[in-house]
TrEMBL record:
<dbReference type="Pfam" id="PF00440">
    <property type="entry name" value="TetR_N"/>
</dbReference>
<protein>
    <submittedName>
        <fullName>DNA-binding transcriptional regulator, AcrR family</fullName>
    </submittedName>
</protein>
<dbReference type="GO" id="GO:0000976">
    <property type="term" value="F:transcription cis-regulatory region binding"/>
</dbReference>
<dbReference type="InterPro" id="IPR041678">
    <property type="entry name" value="TetR_C_16"/>
</dbReference>
<feature type="domain" description="HTH tetR-type">
    <location>
        <begin position="7"/>
        <end position="67"/>
    </location>
</feature>
<dbReference type="InterPro" id="IPR050109">
    <property type="entry name" value="HTH-type_TetR-like_transc_reg"/>
</dbReference>
<keyword id="KW-0804">Transcription</keyword>
<keyword id="KW-0805">Transcription regulation</keyword>
<dbReference type="GO" id="GO:0003700">
    <property type="term" value="F:DNA-binding transcription factor activity"/>
</dbReference>
<dbReference type="InterPro" id="IPR036271">
    <property type="entry name" value="Tet_transcr_reg_TetR-rel_C_sf"/>
</dbReference>
<keyword id="KW-0238">DNA-binding</keyword>
<feature type="DNA-binding region" description="H-T-H motif">
    <location>
        <begin position="30"/>
        <end position="49"/>
    </location>
</feature>
<dbReference type="Pfam" id="PF17920">
    <property type="entry name" value="TetR_C_16"/>
</dbReference>
<dbReference type="InterPro" id="IPR009057">
    <property type="entry name" value="Homeodomain-like_sf"/>
</dbReference>
<dbReference type="InterPro" id="IPR001647">
    <property type="entry name" value="HTH_TetR"/>
</dbReference>
Length: 186
């Protein structure tokens, strides 16, 4: 097998694993089930990922360009963040590793740790820095960033993990934008 085919096979396995973990959580997924969906031998999952835990960790690597939402004045932070959030929530759920981490965080301690680390480094801290650089003192910037982070995580959990219908995406975006803005403004 050439390295190009190996890379493509590894990617195909990851795509199927992301979808399955997002839809069914960690416990319900088997290495054989992912292998069958990807059209490969379960031995390849062991070779590439070391087994189910390694596959899970690879499938839940999260990268979100949150910094893009921080370009601009604090007076319009809420609508910018809300637009980014709603785009992600209404995208392809089976492809979103953040959703996988959210759903698995109750089942797997490493998922909860990975989600907390991701939120701290990619949401809370950049938002804290942004608010501090917008003129707030450090403690106030941290309080407001923590409030926004908790609010968004709560709504995200309600929508994506508990699968509650939160209405029309445009209306949801407007409501999120207004609420985030109020939190940013204090």
């Amino acid at each position: 097998m050439t390295s190009r085919n190996a890379a493509a096979t590894r990617q195909r396995i990851l795509e199927h694993a992301k979808r399955q973990f997002a839809r069914h959580g960690y416990t319900a997924i088997t290495v054989k089930g992912v292998a069958d969906a990807a059209g490969v031998s379960p031995n390849l999952i062991t070779r590439y990922f070391g087994g189910k835990d390694g596959l899970f960790l690879a499938a839940t690597r999260v990268e979100i360009p949150v910094a893009d939402s921080f370009d601009g004045d604090r007076a319009t932070l809420g609508p910018r963040l809300a637009a980014s959030i709603v785009r992600r929530w209404f995208g392809e759920p089976g492809e979103d590793p953040l959703l996988v981490l959210q759903r698995a965080s109750g089942e797997r301690p490493e998922a909860a740790e990975a989600l907390a680390a991701f939120l701290d480094s990619n949401s809370l801290e950049p938002l804290h820095r942004y608010l501090r650089e917008s003129g707030l003192d450090d403690a106030e910037a941290h309080r407001r960033a923590a409030a926004i982070d908790a609010f968004v995580l709560g709504v995200s959990t309600r929508r994506r993990v508990l699968r509650a219908e939160l209405g029309d995406p445009a209306e949801l975006e407007a409501w999120l934008g207004e609420t985030i803005q109020r939190l940013a403004d204090g």
